[in-house]
Amino acid sequence: MKFFGDYHIHTTYSDGRSPLEEMVEAASLAGLKELGLADHGPRNLGSGVKSEQVLLHIKDELNLSKEQYPEMKLYAGVEANVVSLMGDLDISREVIKQLDFLIAGLHPYVLPKKLKELPWVLKNNLFNVSSNWVSSGWSRGKSGGKRRIINDNTKALVEAIYRYEIDVISHPGLKMEIDLAETAKACLARDTCWEINTGHQHPGYQEVLEVARWGVNFMVNSDAHFPESVGALDYGSWVLEKAGVPLQQIKNAGEEVTDIL
């Protein structure tokens, strides 16, 4: 399976390890026809841009690269954080309108919009830190606790999908479990893509198989933080082909570039 674009790329403006120009050069060397930069929103603790205005600076800088790489379409976007149970994002609508595309997702290490929602974030982190928790007495005796976490995560992400024009949800379910069916219904209703994240090799085969049955569209992205990872999308080919997902459900696959952003 061949992919013409990679739309989830980080630079040193957030937690990427290389500057913008090196990531764009890597995309050109990889033979990509489209590239999207999507640095983390500012409420991603220790990893986000300093402020949302940085995203507009990135767009200006990226525009300067377009003459150097006329063979590629270059897009400036963001990987925004869902920061409340009501689906708020950490990027204002004013800035979103000036960007080329919007990726949004759940991240465990974020500063929530309201202090009262801090327990929601902490519960997810606690659940991830203890690798034995799933098989522990807490899980067996208090399975409702895990279900509440999943319900809260699903509510937050689904609310965001309905409130904003989100192009792609990033690595759905990674470190913050969600209800696949409920999230897939929202993506289908809002024409939002489900990301296959090759950097994390997530989601797995069974999840892709389940989501694909709902007719949701997928986008395969590298989540690259290093130049070597730009355009490294082989995991996407493997998992989508194994799940038998038809080409028409994969937005950035095929020989011809389509207008997807």
Describe what this molecule looks like in 3D.
- The protein has 261 residues and is an alpha/beta fold.
- The protein has a single domain (5-249), classed as Alpha-Beta Barrel (TIM Barrel).
- The chain has nine helices and eight strands.
- It has helices spanning 20-29, 53-65, 93-98, 118-129, 137-141, 143-163, 180-190, 205-212, 234-242, and strands at residues 5-9, 34-37, 73-76, 79-81, 103-105, 168-169, 193-197, 218-221.
- Strand 6 (168-169), helix 7 (180-190) and strand 7 (193-197) form a beta-alpha-beta unit.
- Helix 4 (118-129) crosses helix 6 (143-163) and helix 6 (143-163) runs parallel beside helix 7.
- Residues 131-141 have low confidence and may be disordered.
Detail the topology: elements first, then pairings:
Blueprint: E1 5-9, H1 20-29, E2 34-37, H2 53-65, E3 73-76, E4 79-81, H3 93-98, E5 103-105, H4 118-129, H5 137-141, H6 143-163, E6 168-169, H7 180-190, E7 193-197, H8 205-212, E8 218-221, H9 234-242
Parallel strand pairs: 1-2, 2-3, 4-5, 5-6, 6-7, 7-8
Helix pairs in contact: 4-6, 6-7
